[in-house]
Amino acid sequence: VGYLLAIRHAASAHLSDLVVPTTWMNEGIGTALMDHLIAECVRTGLPTQVVMSPPESADWFRRFGFEALGELVRYTGGRHQQAHRAEVVPAGPEHWLAICHLDRRATGEDRSTWLREHDYLNRVWLKQGRVRGFLLPLAGEGLIIADHPAIGLELQRWLLPLKDHITLSAGQPEVHEHLVKQGYSPAQAFVRMVRGVVLEWRGELVFGW
């Protein structure tokens, strides 16, 4: 009558799905599933739980001790530009250490096992042997992490031909201005909520999620 799915990282659990049929709403099923997740995290030593909550569900998660620590915005309906920078190349085995390091810099946690499960059609921005950004199109809705907006925008151009939208961290005026100019319409997509030990999240490095 309901299910909860969560992804286990090195020291955190990310709730990815919580589904209860409408005919079973208000029966305490969602609460029981959340209580079980929290208890399991305590038992297995995962001090942090994260959920990307729909805005209308944020108050429900607050009941379990989650705090709102950021927002994600979805852009839809625009025209993408053609990717053209030679610095973007297919990711190879030699790039994975840098990919995991850059992801940890952005998210504050070790997600290396999960990242490597999405090793297909990936791209990196490579300059003088240094990885400064990456695109994992099959991770989430398309994961893009970069250390500069220009790099993030170029990696978005590799993703947008495959997607009709892009979701990224709020508070990036340069990227927002560019996407709106291309005809994209922004709308709040998720509230990033954290329970337990707070992670050092750097949303300014997140250009696709």
Explain the layout of strands and helices:
Layout: E1 3-8, E2 12-19, H1 29-44, E3 48-53, H2 58-62, E4 67-76, E5 88-90, H3 96-107, H4 112-116, E6 123-127, E7 130-136, E8 143-146, H5 149-159, E9 165-169, H6 173-181, E10 185-196, E11 206-208
Parallel strand pairs: 2-3
Antiparallel strand pairs: 1-2, 3-10, 4-9, 4-10, 5-6, 6-7, 7-8, 8-11
> Which overall shape is indicated by the principal axes computed on the Cα atoms?
globular
CATH topology call of the largest domain: Aminopeptidase
The amount of helix comes to 25-40%
Radius of gyration: 18 Å
Name of the top-level CATH class of the largest domain: Alpha Beta
Proportion of residues in β-strands:
25-35%
Biggest β-sheet strands, sense, barrel:
6 strands, mixed
Could you tell me the number of beta strands? 11
Q: Ends: how far apart?
A: 29 Å
> Do you know the CATH architecture of the largest domain?
3-Layer(aba) Sandwich
Overall structural class, as computed from helix and strand content, comes to alpha+beta
Low-confidence stretches: none
Spatial strand arrangement across the major sheet? 1-2-3-10-4-9
Number of helices: 6
Question: Average pLDDT, to the nearest integer?
Answer: 96
Total number of distinct structural domains: 2
Topology as a string of helices (H) and strands (E) = EEHEHEEHHEEEHEHEE
